[in-house]
Every structure is written in C-alpha cells, then in structure tokens.
From TrEMBL:
InterPro entries: PABS (IPR030374), PABS_CS (IPR030373), SAM-dependent_MTases_sf (IPR029063), Spermi_synthase (IPR001045), Spermidine_synt_N (IPR035246), Spermidine_synt_N_sf (IPR037163). Its EC number is 2.5.1.16. One of its GO terms (biological process) is spermidine biosynthetic process. Pathway: Amine and polyamine biosynthesis; spermidine biosynthesis; spermidine from putrescine: step 1/1. It comes from the Bacteria. Residues 2-235 form the PABS domain. Spermidine binds at D86, D155, S156, S157, D158. The lineage of its organism: Bacteria, Bacillati, Bacillota, Clostridia, Peptostreptococcales. It is an enzyme of class 2 (transferase). It catalyses: S-adenosyl 3-(methylsulfanyl)propylamine + putrescine = S-methyl-5'-thioadenosine + spermidine + H(+). Homodimer or homotetramer. This is Polyamine aminopropyltransferase. NCBIfam families: MFS_SpdSyn, PRK00811.1, speE.
C-alpha cells in the first residue's frame, strides 16, 4: 500500500509524495538515509525526509551544477565535488576531455552505500577511472588542500544537519584558497521563490571573494518551487566571454550550448533581490 512522504520546508509550505516502496532505510552518524520508489518520479535518495535526487530529473541538476562551471573554465583538469554522494555530478564531470581527476568528498558512507545499491544511474561514476570517492568531512578536506583544484563544486543538501557548514563564510574562504589562481567555484543556492534570503546571503558572500560572481538557474520539478538557483564565483574567467567558445559534443539530456547562454538570464524579481542593500 502506498504511503505519503511529507517533505516539510517551512511553516507554510510542504510537498507530499506518494511512495510505492521503501527500498533502503538506515540511520547514519549524520542523518536518516533512505531510497524510496516514488509513484511519479521513480527511485529517489531521501535525506532526513527531504528528497535529494530522483531518477526522473536528476540529470537537470547534475548537468547544470557541473557543465556550466566546467565550460566556463577553458581547460579544467582537477575537479573537487563536496557532497554529491549520489555520484551524478561526478558522472558529468568525468565526461570532459580535459578533466583528469575528479575527487568526490562525501561525509556519509551510508549515502554511498545506498546509492551504489539502488541508484546505478548516478553511482556508476564511483567506478570511473577519473573518479576518487573520498569519505571525509568536506570542510576539513578543503582546508587540507590549498591551491589544488581548477573547479570546486559544492553539491550539498539543504543548509540543515551536516550541510550547515557548507553555507558559511569561513567555508567559502577556504574554498577560495583551495582553488588555483584561475579557479572557479559553484554551489547550489536553493529555490528562487522560497529561499531568497539565502540566495542573497550566498551571492553577497561570494561576490566579496571573487571578481566575477554569477547566479544562474534551471528548472527541476523535484525541488520546491521548481526554479533552482546556482551561484558561481570565478577568479578569472567570465562565462559571458565563453558564450561562443568551441563546444565539446557531450552526451547530455538537459544541458546544451544554448542552455549555457540562457541560464544566466535572471527574472527581474531575482535581480532586485541580488541588487538590494538588505
């Protein structure tokens, strides 16, 4: 008999999902980890009762958080993913010819265990020769690896539980130091409709560190509000200068060169949020 997963986001907003089957459920040292079969979206990774990825639309998020910064950088070789335990971002990063090494640092071994067993669509990257799966605290790992990476992707869950530190000023400073002199950083920035204060806070913090800071968007049905934000900080390369760059023929479902050009176009209400003095 189907059950209802109530995904609570605020006192006034929740999402209900019909679950046909619970395939995996374990309490880790950090959070509740589950894999469920959703009636509409297929298999999904759920952390602390919040859906992280579903097989029906994971490609949107994973392609956008990965290919936009990797195509902004002209020749990325070393990529670090903090979080991203489902493996989808690593799968996408490994597609780039110039990329020689993808380090995926996931704090929770239970996430890797669950995804390896039940989400082969994304966890296929675990066994890619370019990918190193590291089970460590990403906050400490960043501190221990200065001036190392061309691109750093913060593929975190919502800013609660083990992901709280991944949205702090100190962490962003350490990310900056872990990048090479022409490095690029990107993080997911939550819903453009529901989390405008967070988007503004992240944008302001990153823009104080990087000479080039951009917010871009993609529509992802699984996530609350659908329209999802990403914030990118670049030490040297402006994505606007890469609009006509030579394109690799990657196998993708959502991302293409036209999407790259379009994703930086922001609606006026978000421009107003970013430009406000609050």
């Amino acid at each position: 008999m189907p059950i209802i997963l109530n995904e609570h986001h605020s006192s006034g907003f929740s999402l209900n999902w019909t679950v046909d089957k619970v395939l995996y459920q374990q309490k880790s040292d950090f959070q509740q980890v589950a894999i469920v079969e959703l009636q509409e979206m297929g298999r999904a990774l759920v952390l602390d009762n919040i859906i992280q990825v579903t097989v029906k639309d994971e490609f949107v998020y994973n392609e956008m958080i990965t290919h936009v910064p990797l195509f902004t950088h002209p020749a990325p070789e070393k990529v670090l993913i903090i979080g991203g335990g489902d493996g989808g971002a690593a799968r996408e990063a490994a597609k780039h010819e110039s990329v020689k090494q993808v380090d995926m640092c996931e704090i929770d071994e239970k996430v890797i265990e669950a995804c390896r067993e039940y989400l082969p669509e994304t966890s296929v990257s675990y066994d890619h020769p370019k990918v190193n799966v590291i089970t460590k605290d990403g906050v400490q790992f960043i501190k221990d690896n200065p001036n190392t990476y061309d691109v750093i992707i913060i593929d975190s869950s919502d800013p609660i539980g083990p992901a709280v530190e991944l949205f702090g000023k100190d962490f962003y400073h350490n990310v900056y130091n872990a990048l090479k002199e022409d490095g690029i950083f990107v993080c997911q920035s939550e819903s453009l409709f529901l989390h405008q204060n967070l988007i503004k806070k992240v944008y302001d913090t990153i823009s104080k560190l990087y000479p080039i800071t951009k917010v871009y968007t993609a529509t992802t049905p699984t996530y609350p509000g659908f329209l999802w934000g990403y914030t990118m900080g670049s030490k040297k390369y402006d994505p606007y200068d890469r609009m006509d760059a030579e394109k690799q023929d990657l196998q993708t479902k959502y991302y293409n060169h036209d999407i790259f050009k379009a994703c930086f176009a922001l609606p006026n209400f978000i421009k107003e949020v970013l430009e406000s003095n609050k």
